[in-house]
Amino acid sequence: MQVGQLDEALSDFSRALAVDANNAHAHYNRGVAYGIKGDLDRAIAAYDEALRIRPQDIAALINRGSAYRRKGVLQRALLDLDQAVELDPTMWNALAARGRVHEERGDRAAAIVDYRAALKLKPGNALLLEALQRMGVREP
User: Fold this and answer.
1) What is this structure's pTM?
2) What pLDDT does 3 receive?
3) φ and ψ of 23, to 5 deg
4) Domains defined for the chain, CATH in brackets
């Protein structure tokens, strides 16, 4: 998957799951590969399986929330990202992803709060600085 051979990676994950259907790591990585390919429904289904096995998998929650955001299902995305932040409030990428959802929902104040909190955890991050600038915030 890391070298862009997504179909081969998906085949490998399928073989791993044929051996152990409860391999949360394989389900998670399938979700990542499907997400990269733009197959968001399959990505979400794979994250669902990973979370069935490991309900508090923060990375799976963030990625599933991001997949729902990409589909335009913003309220559902927010549920996953809220849960991820609740599980670990120091996950800057969960805060950043949730900020993006707030931004797309038109909740400027909530977006700024999340982007600022993420920036405190990841000082100088260009994407977060850009997001705040996009929101009209000059001083992070």
Assistant:
1) 0.90
2) 60
3) -85, 95
4) 1-55 (1.25.40.10), 57-140 (1.25.40.10)
